[in-house]
Amino acid sequence: MIHKAHSGKIYDTAIIGGGILGLWAARHAIKRGENVVLLEKRKIGAGASGGFLGALMPHMPDNWNAKKQFQFEGLDTLEGVITELEDETSISCGYRRCGRIMPVTNEKLFGQIERRIKGAEENWQRRYTMTLRQVQNNDLINPDIAKFGIQDDTLSARINPRQYIAALDAFVRPRCDLFEGAEVYFLNVQSAHGELKLANGDAIIAARIIVANGYEAYPLLQPFMGEANDGKSIGRGVKGQAVLVDFAHNDDLPIVYHDGSYVVPHEGNRVAIGSTSENDWQNGTSFDEENMSFYEKAIELVPALKDAPIIGRWAGVRPRNTLEGRGTEPYFRMIEGHKNLIALIGGFKITLGIGHNASNKI
Ligand SMILES: Cc1cc2nc3c(=O)[nH]c(=O)nc-3n(C[C@H](O)[C@H](O)[C@H](O)COP(=O)(O)OP(=O)(O)OC[C@H]3O[C@@H](n4cnc5c(N)ncnc54)[C@H](O)[C@@H]3O)c2cc1C
Q1: Considering the entire predicted model, what is its pTM?
Q2: Does ligand 1 have an atom closer than 6 angstroms to the CB of 47?
Q3: Ligand 1 in reach of 183 Cβ (< 6 A)
Q4: 229 and 334 co-located in one domain
Q5: Which of the residues 69, 173, 198, 224 could staple to 202 if both were Cys, CB 3.0 to 4.6 A apart?
Q6: Ligand 1 atom closest to 40 (CA)
Q7: Distance, CA 240 to ligand 1 centroid (Å)?
């Protein structure tokens, strides 16, 4: 039981959700000297952040815009903040700037790739490159798919999401009030202080509320934002699944990406393979053995993985906002008309690469 409302304690910041974004928000607030409470319905890392893919892949560097700049800054600075976190917690996050290769399937793509190469020169601050090259013997990519070569970039990286969460948890937990099994179901932000009501009947009072509970944030925020979307739903969850295989390698391989399939090499002879996108689902965390076409596609792309035993299966639900753009980008901002209420919600693919910056901008 929590009973903070009864004890009269008023927190500076209450954070709902112990995924990558909630944990980063907590780390920043703690470093600013704030008094923080973090409320997690299940366990830390139980949501979309607790998978094993961990691809950190940049948007294409042509047609540059503010969104791509923000993502670039996230990927560029992540290595430094990870080193700091690892030093503080003695937990490795399994980060490596591994690069990414993508097959070129059609010569008509050459013009587009030339624009990307030029875009990388202009926008990646000359520290990372994109190139077009021939398939080499040590590339694991299927040469029948990479008929016209490979697009290769040096900015992409990978991280082990579970170790990353464990490191953030190790920093945050001893420095704030952190409650697992604490489901927030209602928010009241009418007065100067916000009030959070919990499913067990307790209440928490805080000067500022950060709503960072993934796709489950939408129903909590809907009463404050419905008008922004003409009363329609402001977002939904999209389920995805992935597998982990045991494959001997020297941890010097790049990510291989093609047509929605990605193969992400990790330490300890692990390779993660993803992923699916389902709008209609009943159970967000149950792995559906029938839904393995993503794996078959990945094996066609990287045939060397054919006999690698599957040692892990994972399903999770990522948030998709229906308020703006394609909805696949993270959504982080103050809620209009409510200075003490902040939305901090992840998106598809890129959230692990920008979580440290997104949570610092709000
Ligand atoms: C199959 C798949 C593959 C992916 N691959 C990648 C990838 O390679 N790279 C990448 O960057 N991103 C990837 N993503 C996306 C990324 O995982 C998510 O965008 C990100 O983890 C979302 O983080 P979050 O903190 O917003 O939410 P979550 O990690 O979902 O955390 C939300 C937390 O809030 C808790 N919660 C929910 N409701 C309540 C409540 N009412 N009260 C209290 N707590 C609550 C949940 O239990 C959960 O722990 C992938 C997602 C999926 C599904």
Answers
A1: 0.96
A2: yes
A3: yes
A4: yes
A5: 198
A6: 44
A7: 11
